[in-house]
Amino acid sequence: MKTEIAPAEERAKATESAVVLLQKGEVVALPTETVYGLAADALNAEAVAKIFEAKERPRFDPLIVHLPDREWLEKVAELPARDRESILKLIDRFWPGPLTLVLPRRSIVPKIVTAGLDTVAVRISAHPVFSEIIREFGSPLAAPSANRFGRVSPTTAQHVMNELDGRIPLIVDAGPTMHGVESTIIAVHEGKIDILRQGPITDGELSIFGKIDAISSAEKISAPGQLPSHYAPKTPLRLIVNAKSISPIQNQQVGLLAWNPIESEKHFVAVRRLSERGDLREAAANLFRYLRELDAFDLDLIVAERVPEIGLGAAIMDRLRRAAHRQPDGQDKPE
Questions:
Q1: What is the pairing mode between strands 237-240 and 211-215?
Q2: Which of 64, 99, 216, 248 could be joined to 94 by an S-S link, Cβ 3.0–4.6 Å?
Q3: Tens of pLDDT along the chain (335 residues)?
Q4: How far apart are CA 142 and CA 123, in angstroms?
C-alpha cells in the first residue's frame, strides 16, 4: 500500500492517484478536517461494499455521504418544505465544515450506503486536500473513518496504515487532522434540532438556529457512530473523575489519559494529558492519538479522567463513554 504525501508541491500527484483509483471503484484513505476517512464512490454500490469489507463494518451501520459542492445536495437528498429554511441557514453557517445533516434519501443513493434507511447523512468537508480530490472526482464520496470497525478513529496517515495496511491501495497523507473527533450529526424537524452525534459543532453553536429538541441516546441506529460500543482501544478503558482517587491495582499495568493536572505518575506505566492548558479543542485533537499511544503499551487497563461536558467536552465524553462500553458481558462500564 502506498502513502502519498500531499503538501502543495505534491498535491497534484496525490490528487491524480486518488481520483484514478476512485474512478476504478477502489477505496482510498483521505484526510478530512475531523479524522481520516475511507472513501469510495457513494453512487457505486460495489465500491461502497469495499469500504465495509476493509473496515469489517456491519452493514446495518450507515455511512456519511460527502458532497463535492452544494449543487449535489438536492440530487442525493430531499429538503422537506417545512424545514428548508432552517436547513439552508445551517448550511450557510457551517458548510464546508464538520456538520452532517440527516435528510430524506433520494433513490440515486444506493441502500448499502444508508443501511437500508430512508434517510441519508450528508456533509461537505472543509479539508483542502479532500475538497480538491472530490471536486476532481466530480461525484459524492462515502467516507467513514479509515479504521477497523469499532476501533479508535485515525487522525494521522500512520494510524490508517496501522489499521488497514494491505487492505486498501492508497493513503493520501496530509498530516494530522484538525478537529480530531468526527463531525456533529443532526436532524432538523419543524425548526427543532436533534443531535444524533456530538462533534466539533457544539450545542451552543447550533442553538442559535433552533431549539435543541433532543440529544440522541441512539436506542435505534439512525446515523453513523451511534453504537454504544465504539471508538475503542484494544485495552479495556474505564472512566474516572480524578486520578487522585486511583490506588495501585495489584499485578496490573495501568495507563492514564488525564484531563486534570498530574500530581503523581507513580501508579501508571504511561500518562498522556489531553491538554496542558485545559483547552477542550486541543483535548479533542489529541484524544484518539493519545488513546492509540496508550494502547500500544500493552496495558491491562486505561483509566480516563472525565472532561467538563460543556462545548466540545460533550463530544469528547461521548467518545470516551463509547470506548469504555464493553460487550457482551458489560464489564468495564463507565463509573
A1: unpaired
A2: 99
A3: 666 554 566 777 888 999 999 999 999 999 999 999 999 999 999 999 999 999 999 888 899 999 999 999 999 999 999 999 999 999 999 999 999 999 999 999 999 999 999 999 999 999 999 999 999 999 999 999 999 998 999 999 999 999 999 999 999 999 999 999 999 999 999 889 999 999 999 999 999 998 897 665 555 666 666 665 567 899 999 999 999 877 777 789 999 999 999 888 888 999 999 999 999 999 999 999 999 999 999 999 999 999 999 999 999 999 999 999 754 333 333 33
A4: 10
2-215 and 237-324, same CATH topology: no
State the maximum Cα–Cα separation within the chain, in Å, rounded to a whole number.
Answer: 62
How many other C-beta atoms are found inside a 10 Å radius of the C-beta of residue 255? 27
* Angle at alpha carbon of residue 320, lines to 143 and 287, rounded to 5°: 70
What lies within 8 Å, CB to CB, of 278 at 6+ separation is 259
Supply the CATH classification number for the domain 2-215: 3.90.870.10
C-alpha cell at 152: 479508535
Residue type, 124: I
Cα separation of 206 and 218, whole Å? Answer: 19
227: buried, middle or exposed (CB in 10 Å: 19+, 13-18, 0-12)?
middle
Select from 173, 199, 10 the least CA-distant residue to 98. Answer: 199
Distance separating alpha carbons of residues 132 and 151, to the nearest angstrom: 28
- Residue 322: HSE in the Cβ half-sphere, 13 Å Cα cutoff: 23
- Record the cell numbers describing residue 235, joined without a space: 485495552
* pLDDT the model gives residue 331: 38
Q: Which CATH code for domain 237-324?
A: 3.40.50.11030
Question: What is the separation of C-alpha 289 from the centre of its chain, rounded to a whole number of angstroms?
Answer: 13
